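<instruction>
Derive structure tokens from the sequence
<entry> Chain with its tokenised backbone below:
===
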Amino acid sequence: MLPGKTYTPEDVLQILRSRVWLLLIPFALVSAATAVVARQLPDQYRSETLIYVVPQQVPTDYVRATQTTRIQDRLQSISQQILSRTRLERIIQDFNLYPEERRDGIMEDVVEQMRRDIFSAGTGQVTSADSFRVAYVGSNPRTVKDVTERLASLFIDESNRDRQNIAEGTNEFLETSVADTHRRLLESEKRLEDYKRRFAGELPSQTPGNLQIVQNMEMQIQALVQSQNHDRERRLDLQRQLDEAERVDDGNALSDAPAGGGTAAQQLQTARSQLAGLQLRLTADHPDIRRAQRVIQELEAKAEREALQAPVTPALDRSPATAGRRSRVAALRADLEQLNRQLAEKEKAESRLRGLVGGYQRRIEASPIRESEMTELNRDYALLQGMYNSLVSKREEAKLATNLERRQIGEQFKLLDPARIAERPFSPNRERITLMGMAGGLALGIALIFLLEYRDRSFRTDEEIARVLALPVLAVVPLMQSEDERKRLFRRRLIFGCGAGCTVALCFAAVAYTLVR
């Protein structure tokens, strides 16, 4: 191509007229070759079936389905199971698919080829929210139809098996969870029961009763203290009366008794009176109290010896007045002893009540700690009980869902459009392949013309010389040929044109023949 040369539409048309055979011959040859190759390609037939997803027949408000995934996710999972090598090998062997590939290659490549044929046919393509297609492409239409039916049945069976396995697995899992939760609930109940038995009386629910018992005991203690004070005042009064009576009786007895301090019995009575007076003023551990008790013990032994040695004589020397005084002294002593016993019993009762009050006070003080511990135990128990009730409810729902799957009234796949024998090939699309070849041949011819024009640096007109070289043209010498040269050139062009025309015609005839058939 000359530098700076521009092409006008007239130049382009002139180039095409001069190189028309260079455009037609590649176009015809490539088109014919493409048509022949397309004709030699083996026919591939496609068979498909439409599977409809039948929804659950029982309302979900009554029975909740265990399978909640989308159909796209389920199809992907089922497809991976169905298109596994084991199942595809069984289908290949059952229908004797790909005999040449199996004879010349390995089974892994054959299985991969079948996967490509299944996917290229559109298997697993979801047409709507509740349906999808299963298809297969092969060379034998009847075999293709049988394989498609087998794949559809595998999808249906695998879906039913998958749903039933999920329902049964869910049921088994919930059974195990319910048993485990029930065991933990019983353990929690046992811990709670042991805790209540161990800390009986200190529980928060028993605090009001403990407070009421403490109040009642304090009232009893107060009443006992008041009764003891009253008994002590009465004992002092009785002791004064007893002292006066004994002084009168002792004075009369001393006047009648011989010298030497009186008998041992009289000294014993005096010592007892003195001990009673000391007990009113001193404690039981005081040395004077102990010394007086030792003296009383010695006098009691001495009085027993005198009673054994004394002759038995009637007491004729006692007067009625003396007997009356001594009877009064004995009565006062009996009353005093009874009053002392009552005071001792009341003191023991007061000590016992104060011990009980202390125990109940300790129970009341421990109540906040027990309340915190009981709150934790009750929280664990309530949590386990809620989990147990929830799991039991879910287990019953899972049992219903399992029964639905077993009776096949849950969601399932159903053939809506069964597979049929293909009446025409699915591929190859010979028309499109031929048109693509024709377009490629045309592009090749244009590319050849462009290449020749790009390499052509010759001047064809005086205008090109003047424009490119910027030199004036003085004269133009025309091409001079003889008559024989013109005839030879004409015959050469005629022979080339006839040959090229025949070639193009034959190519177009071959293209038309392949397209028509």
Remarks:
- Confidence is low (pLDDT under 50) at residues 253-261, 312-318.
- The first helix runs from residue 9 to 18.
- DSSP finds 14 helices and four strands in the chain.
